[in-house]
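[Meeting: bench + compute handoff]

Bench side (C.D.) handed over the final construct sequence. Compute side (W.E.) agreed to return the predicted structure before the next meeting so the bench team could plan truncations. Sequence as handed over:
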Amino acid sequence: MIKRRVIHIALTVFLLFVLIPGSIALAHSPVFPGENHSPETAYQIDNPAKSWAIYDELDHMDEGEYYRFDLSAGDRIQLALLTPESPAESGFLPSFALLMPVAPEVNKAPDHIDVPDGYGVILVEGKDPGEAAYEAFSPGWYYEVAALLVQEATSDGTFYVVVFADVHQDDHTHDDGDDHEHTEKAAKYGLVVGYLESFTPLELVLVPYSVQKVYHWEGQNTFVALLPILLVLVIGGTIMYYCVRKGRAHLGLSKWLAYFAGMAFFGSGVSFVYQMVLTFTVTGIHAEALISLIFVVLSFFLGLATLLYAVREKPALTPWRRTGLILTGLIALFVWSGLYLGPALIIAAALVPTQPGRTLEG
């Protein structure tokens, strides 16, 4: 029975991923760089063919932020620039310049951009797209303001991308007393580099952590973003506590751990739904939301499978049951459910010594 259940869980998860449409290629590996305000301090992008999403913000309107990568002649270059806020509402419309070695100067860079000697410039000016795009895997939204889709490297060497804004975009700046203009509201942008979508196992595992940082980049409060999961854990825990006190449930340590793991998985599903609804307020309803719904279904499915174990009368942990719990935790880890807490708890539930169920006394 348990063996068949484990097989059914694995097959269901596999089939759900097969059904994910081709727009999965829109996924990017997230990066959060530090200070990079000159060619000398430019952020190094390794493997620029791989698709990266770099989340950053301009600290000063009279400076650029620099990124560099190494290419060979003929290598393909693909770049895009986006913001989390409508340029019409925020007043912030960034642009970017591609600096290429041993190349004629195609465009003239703005005066506040530092162009190394011998480099040519391709300038891509930002334009307000008017509408936000829906991101299915967070879920979230963004405004794509500039793109350079097809460009070949003219020679071997180090290339630079500089993100900048018009120095006159200072409607929301103020003087901090140190003779520098700083933004009252962070001028946030995302730079997308590359075209080959691939993730290492570590990058896949770190997605929930990165997604929380992306939500912060969008302007969301971190506590509010986590609140759906926290509420499900608190409400679910309270309900089970009273059930145990009234003798309606008998939980040992393994089952308590599994129960809260299931609540964490359900919480992830609720959190996804919350983020979808929040995104719809900006983008309207999109067909790409079907991808988001797949992750909602996965989280609810993992939560249900976990709770079925937690509420069963017999608490004995057979080798197959332990294997099934561990497999559930690993699946949850790689489908971004439970925000690490769920996978950790369900794996812990599989590893604890067998204990008889007991009722909590008042």
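W.E. noted at the follow-up: Residues 1-26, 172-184, 357-362 have pLDDT under 50 and may be disordered. C.D. will use this when planning the next construct.
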